[in-house]
Amino acid sequence: MKKLFIMVILAVMATGLFALDLGGIKGTWKDAKWDADWTFSADGHIVLSLSSTGEKIFDFNESTISDFKVDAGTKGVTISFYCKETERAYKFTKGVSLSTDLDMVINPDWTDEDYSVSIKLK
Q: How many Cβ atoms from other residues are within 10 Å of residue 43's Cβ?
C-alpha cells in the first residue's frame, strides 16, 4: 500500500499540476460545453470566467468557499469544496496518468443531477 501511495504522489508531482501547498492546481482549464475557463492560481483563488470574452463570472477564494479538502488516493488527487453563494459543491480530480485533463463534478443544491465533464488544460 505504501508503494502505491508513493506512486500516486510521484505521478502527480511529475505532471506538475498539483503544488505541494494544499494541493493547489495552477493553470487554466476549459469547459467547452459551457464556454467556461477555470483558472487556478498560486494565491489560492479559483476564477470562473467566460472563455470567449475573459469576463469574470465568479472568484472562489477563502471567503467564498467552505469544506475545502485535498484527497490523494489510488485514482488520483481530488480537490473539493462547497460555495454557499453559488449553492454548489465542486470536485476536481486529476487522475493518475500523464493526461493534463481534470475531471470536474458540480453538485447543485437544488437537484440530484450532477454536472460532470472532463476539462482540458489551455
A: 7
Measuring CA to CA, how many Å separate 36 from each of 10, 58, 79, 95? 30, 11, 19, 21
pTM here is: 0.77
* Contact yes or no for 27/40 (Cβ under 8 A): yes
Helix or strand holding residue 5 (H, E): helix 2-15
Q: Which residues of 54-75 are buried (b: 16+ CB within 10 A; e: fewer)?
A: eeeeeebeeeebeeeeeebeee
Tens of pLDDT, residue by residue over 8-51, are 444 444 333 333 233 446 899 999 999 999 998 877 789 999 99
The type of residue at 89 is A
Strands laid side by side in the 56-60 sheet:
56-60, 46-50, 36-40, 27-31, 115-121, 102-108, 88-95, 76-83, 66-73
